[in-house]
Amino acid sequence: MRLNNFSTKLNPPGVLSVGAIDSTNNILTESTTNEFVDIWAPGENIYSLDGSNINKFHGTSVAAPFITSLAVLIQNEWSDINPELIEKLIKEGATKYKGRWGTQNKNIRLVNYKDSLKLCSSTKTR
Fold this sequence. Notes:
The chain is of the alpha+beta class. It has helices at residues 60-77, 83-93, 113-124, and strands at residues 18-21, 39-42, 46-50, 53-57, 95-101, 104-110. The protein has one domain (18-124): Rossmann fold.
């Protein structure tokens, strides 16, 4: 199910909406692409188990675990951190990029583990 036309007024703090990019950092056609996407992660040719077989998958469903794992790493560094600050560190640590979706250019934030974790360390010591 694709939620490209899904619209909501809910944007709870501490929750990240994830989109998927391809190997050239352009937005996948299999990705959620609405205006609520906060962060983009790899979502093309991601290997995963499919029953007892290993297959390639595409889309937002395989991009989201990249963001979840970064949130876990941040929480591992700073055990009493709140979800809103995790969201902020992931967004602020992201690399700004102009991605293509069809014929359109969109300003997107690409997940950046290194910069988000560096930001976590510097914020934590303040």
